[in-house]
Each structure stands twice: as structure tokens, then as C-alpha cells.
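Example 3.2
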Amino acid sequence: MDTLLGAPCPDMRRMGPLDLAFVGDGIYDLLAREYLLKDGPCPVKKLHLRKTALVCCKAQARALGGLWEELSESERGIALRGRNAHVGHVPKNADIADYHGATALEALFGWLYMTGEYKRARELFLMAAKILEQDYSKHS
């Protein structure tokens, strides 16, 4: 399986959960951006605010909780590795539990991307977006 750059994926046995989260952060962000453009053009400020609401720590942790029952055993294992990773620091504006949940979700999306499971990444992202959009509409 090749990455977007055309390089073969690295040996997944050597990839740590924070390596996967590093990649998954970008993949999840890209999926969020594409998702927000599905209805056509929108003012950039509005897009940015909506994207931030989808990708912030709290939202990612909430999404993971909503997806948990839909994950396979191996997907849960990757997410647990991400959640339990020693992150070194937590941003001052983030709750530690949310940060670990976000890292878990990002590790999962990094793993899905690096293993070429693009269809599954899209499927899980759309489920996550639905969960978060429902939460957003309840609080608006």
C-alpha cells in the first residue's frame, strides 16, 4: 500500500501510537475540511469555526465515545494504545481526559490511513460527524 506521496507505508510494527496520532491528526482534519465543503462554498471564517468545532479535543473525545461500539477489536486496540500513550504535555486549554481521547481517535485515523483503510476512515469519520452535528444542534 502506498501513501499519498507514493511511498510504501512504513513497517506498522515500528509505529508508536503517537506516530499514528501525528498522521491521524492531519487525516482527521482533512476529512473535516472536505466534509464541510460538501454543501458548496461558504465564508472561510464560518468554515474555520465549524472545522474547529469538529476537530477540537473535546469533540474528538466525544466522537470516539460515540464510535466505540462500532469499532472492531483491532481498531479498539489501536485507540487504546493512543489513549494510553505518554503524551508529555497537555495544552492548558484542554481537559486531560479529552486530550487522551483525542489522541486515541487520531491514532486510530492514522492507523487507518497508514494501512490503506481509506473507506473505513471515511465511514468512521461520517459517523463521528453525525454524532458531533447532533450535539452541535442540541446546543445551538
